[in-house]
Amino acid sequence: MNPIVDKEKCIGCGTCVALASNTFKMDDDGKAIVIDPKGDDDDMIQMGCDSCPTQAITLE
Ligand code: SF4
């Protein structure tokens, strides 16, 4: 899994961070960033991606 956050699309809801907190983190701008692409199990990263309300996360 290689999650990428499109900061233009992120609205800072925090859902991805709540689901996969070792992979995503909120930055100082209130947007999600990837801190470790393999920080959590693939299914949790996938769930974070699927749960994003603005489809800001893509997985490669
Ligand atoms: S779930 Fe989507 S909109 Fe919410 S913080 Fe994560 S990337 Fe941003």
> What's the number of structural domains?
1
Give the percentage of residues in beta strands: 15-25%
The first-to-last residue Cα distance is 6 Å
Q: Tally the beta strands.
A: 4
Helical residues, percent: 25-40%
Strand order of the largest sheet: 1-4
Walk me through what this model shows.
It contains two helices and four strands. The chain is an alpha+beta fold. The protein has one domain: Alpha-Beta Plaits (2-Layer Sandwich). The strands form two sheets. The protein has a two-stranded antiparallel sheet. A two-stranded antiparallel sheet has the order 2-3. It binds iron/sulfur cluster. Iron/sulfur cluster binds next to α1.
Keywords:
20% strand; Alpha-Beta Plaits; two-stranded antiparallel sheet; single chain; 2 helices; 4 strands; 60 residues; alpha+beta; binds iron/sulfur cluster; two-stranded antiparallel ribbon
Short note summarizing the structure:
The chain has 60 residues and is of the alpha+beta class. The chain is 25% helix and 20% strand. The strands form two sheets. Strands 1-4 form a two-stranded antiparallel ribbon.
